[in-house]
Amino acid sequence: MLLIVAGVGAGGAAGVLRAADQRTADIERIDTLEGVLDTPDDNVAYPAENYLLVGSDTREGLDPDSPDFGAIGGADAVTGRRSDTIMVLRQEHNGGAALMSLPRDLWVEIAGTGESQRINSAYNAGPERLAATVSQSLGIPIHHYVEVDFDGFKQIVDEIGGVEVCVWNQARDEHSGLVLDPGCQTITGVMALAYARSRYYEEWDGTDWVMDPRADLGRIERQQHFIREAVGGALAEMQSSPFAAGDTIEAVAGAVRIDPGLDPVRAAEVLRKAAETGLRTFALPVYNDTVGDAAVLRLGDGAEQLIAYFRGEAPAPAGFETATDPALEL
């Protein structure tokens, strides 16, 4: 959804919006989400809406000839379908937007089961189970749902011309296939996915490869930085050439699945305005724990304060905002 923001762009031209309407009519809708999501009353003024943004790790339909197929694997590389990335986007109706990532290993009660598991396992029973789990376990109302898989993510990044990423040192992840040179560089689909998926991120310190000890939490910070850069860069591109937005919108339309009640063009236009005021990104405070033999994460000190903001019960706590420095350090 954040890249649909860029797709609709700053053109604002009627022709662009009409083209967007035509292209988004064929976006896949997830009918099973009806009755699961919060539906605002049209007669009540709501201060904000929450979008559940999900990156699926499904390998279905991946091209075996893709250069990153070895790093990702085919449909038999994972059992079932899990949510590789889970984020909640709060869009304030009076302007501004905030993004909070939910670690995939967060230990919560899975909706409808009476049992607790890592939150990403909820997606095994479908997006409706995941949405219900976020709403019930964290108390965060979810109004809309947007999902993209690995292949769709690569298509969107390629269509917007790539995203600039800056690192102090040479970086790699031998599991995801990531390879970055020191300095700033524009990465496109394949390498962008390797960057977004990296949980074994390493940087060369001149003598040895040094692993980022934060694992998934480090990945979350890099993902959030990537999104800020992607939205900013794509908005700038669309402002300079607004009618090029059509191809971006078409790529997005073929790459995402959304809830039945979401109007992509209206949402994108509202979110575009919010993104122009600055996208705030937040890290949920967590701590390491074990359940049996499983390494998990639990909500830490201050988590309730941040979650209360996404519930609409409190102001945004600045203490949990993630770094905005484009050059990330270990």
Question: What does this molecule look like?
Answer:
The chain has 330 residues and is an alpha+beta fold. The protein has a single domain (2-159, 244-328), classed as 2-Layer Sandwich (Nucleotidyltransferase, domain 5). The chain is 33% helix and 25% strand. Strand 3 and strand 4 (97-101) form a beta hairpin. Helix 2 packs parallel to helix 8 (245-253). The longest helix is centred in the C-terminal third of the chain and has 25 residues, at 216-240. The model is unreliable at 3-16 and 326-330 (pLDDT under 50).
- Separation of the first and last Cα atoms: 29 Å
Counting helices, strands and paired strands, the structural category is alpha+beta
Strand count, sense and closure of the main sheet?
Answer: 7 strands, mixed
Q: Per DSSP, what share of the residues sits in E-state strands of 2 or more residues?
A: 25-35%
Domain unit count: 1
Low-pLDDT parts are: 3-16, 326-330
User: Based on the structure given, which CATH architecture is correct?
Assistant: 2-Layer Sandwich
Element-by-element helix/strand order: HHEEHEEEEHEHEEEEHEEHHEHEEEHE
